[in-house]
Amino acid sequence: MKGGGGRLAQQAAAPLRLESRRFRLLSIVVGCFVFCLVFLLSSRPDATAFDTVSVSPRASFSGARRPAAVKTLRTAGFGGDFHVDIRQQEQGESRGQLRQSVEQSAGDKTATEWVRDTVIVEERSDDAEASEAAEPEDAASNSDDQAAQGAKNKEVHDDAAVTTAAAAATTTAQPAAETTATAPHRPEEKARAAGGQTQSKLQEKEQPAPQQQEERHEPARSGGGDHQHQQPLCDFSDFRSDICDLAGDVRLDANASSFVVVDPSASGDGQSHKVRPYPRKGDETCMSRITELTVRSSSAPGAAAPPRCTAQHAAPAVAFSIGGYTGNIFHDFSDVLVPLYNTAHRYGGDVHLVMANVASWWLVKYDKLLRSLSRHPPLDLAAAAAAGEVHCFRNATVSLRAHKELIIERDRSADGLATPDFTRFVRRALSLPRDAPTRLVVPGTGSNKKPRLLVISRHRTRLLLNLAAVVRAAEEAGFEAVVNESDVGNDISEVGKLINSCDAMVGVHGAGLTNMVFLPPGGVLVQIVPWGGLQWMARADYGDPAEAMGLRYVQYEVGVDESTLKDKFPPGHQIFTNPTGLHKKGFAFIRHTLMDGQDITVDVGRFREVLLQVRNSLAQ
């Protein structure tokens, strides 16, 4: 019985020992699983424990074993955080290669010094960034090869996603032009950006050129499109005129009085401006007479489709108006011809002149000057509109570059032009022969020549009442005196030849003095300034331009006894005691009372002294 009982006990214990061994084996398996799980979670703290991925388990575990792609490094000597890409290439890279890349970026510091001053304050994994930005791949793909390819593509995407704002002064392993600038995505990055600290991504491996190109443009696309970086079509900063410089596919829709710059991006956020192409933009009365042109890009909000071209031009266009105050020779030159030369000279005649507010008589009068600026016939905007024409150019300038009255300032001219260049252009266009005054004494001949003096005679306002006495005084001073009545209908070539034959010119303040542009350099202009504190105006309109043209300038200022104002106002009136105080009444008062409201009888004795000074200056 005892032996039988022992055998029964052994038979009962055998299954228990078998179950115990199974339990220990299961415990070992579970322990290993838990250990592996803890290891994975500790190596990837930002990963979800039971994240569902669209790649195979093999790809997932290989990604989990991959080291962090980006480490944020804080350096003692650089004054900021740096995001360093430490992901190894497929072939594998040594720490020496990483150190070499860092050394190239650290400037004077060696790699060892740079690493010694560096503390790792944050680690980030490519997969963490990819889980936020990348869309899930096809869940049906279970092959290991497809999963590996998907992981590789995500690495490329992660490079662009974690790229941060790179300062221009930061040196990287790539050229500065290839630096990728993006807005910070993480809160701590935004905080550092707000604090003005420099952020840069130092890449351990050099990417292919196409991939770099794609990454450089990606921030612009994510930021709203390249249209944000478009250059302004027009410049409104000048005090005389608004200028629009257009390039590309430029279409003049004459019927709509608009220049359309075709924008291939069609972003819907283009530009649209209204411009009156005449250089008196502060004068509302004048500018109300000027045709308004629209300058816009085809992508402007609510804009119609670009018009189809009816004429293609290889030469550029310059658009301007000959309305406003034209018809007055001063404004013909100061508002149109001088700034037109400054704007169109660069094209050497191969330019289309697009004109608004055209008057045919004006084109006839200045035909030679216009032909010298452009070998193409003028394009009348109104006539083109009536014909429904759309003219297309590669470049166009809307409005003219105007500086001071009758002056081109060399330091402001895009082509380095100056006023003497314009007067030389006028003399050549009109075939005016003289580039210097008369030589009064011819050596070896014993003969003296008289200089010619042109006296401008006005016939409506600011009349020179004792003109005959002035002519006699000029002849007594040794001049050959010539009288000319400036008239708007005079042929410009004939007027130019007459004045170019003279050495000096005299006249009361007014548009007729503009004829000084035909005088030879070195000649003299004498301006008689009416009473009323008009010295500043006389100087700005004719004195400064005369000197800019290379002429000598003399200003004769009228006294009260020489003005007919003494017969219109009582003695002691403010117009005699403080005329400049009346200027606050505005230009209409100045023009009506002080300019058009007086005639002049010069003191011949005092004026003769001025003429003698002019004669002596020419003799020198």
From TrEMBL:
GO terms for cellular component: Golgi membrane. GO terms for molecular function: pentosyltransferase activity. It is found in: Golgi apparatus membrane. Residues 139-151, 161-183 have a biased composition (Low complexity). Residues 90-233 are annotated as: Disordered. Keywords: Glycoprotein, Glycosyltransferase, Membrane, Transferase, Transmembrane, Transmembrane helix. It holds the Pfam family Glyco_transf_61. Signal peptide: none annotated. Its main location: Golgi. Pathway: Glycan metabolism. Residues 124-138 have a biased composition (Acidic residues). The keyword Cell inner membrane does not apply. It is a single-pass type II membrane protein. It comes from the Eukaryota. Residues 366-525 form the Glycosyltransferase 61 catalytic domain. The chain crosses the membrane at residues 23-42. Residues 110-123, 202-229 have a biased composition (Basic and acidic residues). PANTHER family: GLYCOSYLTRANSFERASE, OS01G0118400 PROTEIN. This is Glycosyltransferase 61 catalytic domain-containing protein. It comes from Urochloa decumbens.
